[in-house]
Design a protein that fits this description.
This protein is of the alpha+beta class. The protein is built from four helices and nine strands, in the order E-H-H-E-E-E-E-E-E-H-H-E-E. Strand 2 and strand 3 form a beta hairpin.
């Protein structure tokens, strides 16, 4: 079993804004490396059954997972079944000061196939870095700071972020 992959970075956005981006799992194929398709099959309260198609080292794999939403602090996506003995992607958002958030992503996975397991052991150490980098890019292109409300820059509230309009 490969060790979990763990990445932690600080973002200049509030936790709630970053959480909204990550919780929009159906948007993953638009920006997350490796995700080819995502569809919510069923949602009840803070849980959703999610069908995903991912590409790992050129191999396309489809699986169904359960997403557990705990806004704005945590999203956990878990799966087991034909492809995985165990799959768990956890996103944690901790606002360490106003507008600055520690984002921690952790991936644990164990494949049923010995071949896929060997591949995962080789890829795991760096698997999450491009995923977190994709979130950084998504935040930079989809979130902007609100302009200060007639206050000097030093008094502006850095936690005021708004979604960019689609005209940008």
């Amino acid at each position: 079993m490969p060790p979990p992959s763990h990445v932690e970075r600080h973002f200049n956005y509030p936790a709630a804004a970053l959480y909204v981006l990550v919780a929009d799992v159906e948007a993953y194929p638009a920006y997350m490396p490796g995700w080819r398709a995502v569809r919510i099959l069923h949602r009840t309260g803070n849980e959703a059954q999610v069908e995903q198609v991912v590409s790992l080292a050129g191999l396309r794999k489809q699986f169904v997972s359960i997403a557990y939403f705990n806004p704005p602090h945590r999203l956990v996506i878990q799966a087991d079944g034909d492809l995985f003995k165990h799959f768990r992607l956890t996103w944690n958002f901790n606002e360490i000061c106003t507008g600055i958030t520690s984002v921690c992503a952790e991936l644990e996975l164990v494949f049923r196939s010995a071949t896929m397991e060997r591949l995962a052991t080789h890829l795991m150490p760096d698997m999450l870095n491009p995923v977190v980098a994709a979130l950084e890019h998504r935040a930079a292109t989809h979130l902007i700071r609100s302009p200060p409300e007639n206050k000097p820059e030093s008094e502006a509230n850095p936690s005021k972020y708004v979604a960019k309009s689609s005209s940008h």
